[in-house]
Amino acid sequence: MSAADLLTLLRVLIIFAILLTGLLAGPDGLAYTVVLLLVAWTTDYIDGPAARLLNGKATSWLGRRDLQIDMAAAVVLNIYLVTAGFLPLRYLALYLALWGLVFWRFGLVRLLAMFFQAPLYGAFVYTALIQAPQAGRWLLAWLVLAVLSPWPRFTPLWAWRELKNGLRELRGGLGRK
To answer: Which of 111, 133, 143, 150 lies in the 20 to 30 Å Cα band around 121?
Structure first.
């Protein structure tokens, strides 16, 4: 197993740890969950470049599921918010049901998956800022550092390319179902 796969696997384990934190610690586990998220984001940030550096163009089975793992992390963060009493279950259930219909219709298009994740992560960051301000500020600091970093994934040019490619992929998938 490559170093990149180990980082991705660590993110999967973190997802389970976040779920357990919600079930066992409830709202008192928010700061701990923020730390887990920071570690997960960091592993996600470096696993792709590590894979490209170490493996070239070859992508592992786990690497091909990176997007689904990211989506699972976003959902589990919000399950944490529900189990900790920060978010009503009906809001998350409605959100997931609506997006389930979108994915059923268009498939797992990367652009749609990014749009799916953004409000889920946003809800968690907002909750952390309100309920555990110091921990929430750590999340914001991480995001600012990621955007200011020299890695191309967080530049406006990267975002523009992702949007163009996603729209092309979405347009190509409109007739498939």
So the answer is: 150
With contact defined as beta carbons under 8 Å apart, do 16 and 75 qualify?
no
Residues 6+ apart with CB under 8 A from 141: none
How much is the pLDDT for 53? 76
Query: For the chain, how far is it from start to end, CA to CA, in angstroms?
Result: 36
Provide CB contacts within 8 A for 6, sequence distance 6+. none
Question: Token digits for 85?
Answer: 């009493």
- Nearest Cα to Cα of residue 86 among 126, 58, 52, 127: 127
Counted domains in the chain = 1
- For residues 152 and 107, the answer to whether their CB atoms sit within 8 Å is no
155 contacts: CB under 8 Å, gap ≥ 6: none
Q: Which of 21-30, 35-44, 49-58, 88-97 shows the lowest mean pLDDT across its residues? A: 49-58
Q: Compute, in degrees rounded to 10, the torsion defined by CA atoms 48, 112, 79, 19.
A: -20
Nearest CA among 131, 141, 123, 140 for reference residue 32? 131
pLDDT mean across residues, the chain: 88
Instruction: Round to whole Å and give the CA distance between 157 and 20.
Output: 38
Q: The whole model's pTM is what?
A: 0.86
**3-class DSSP state of 176:** coil
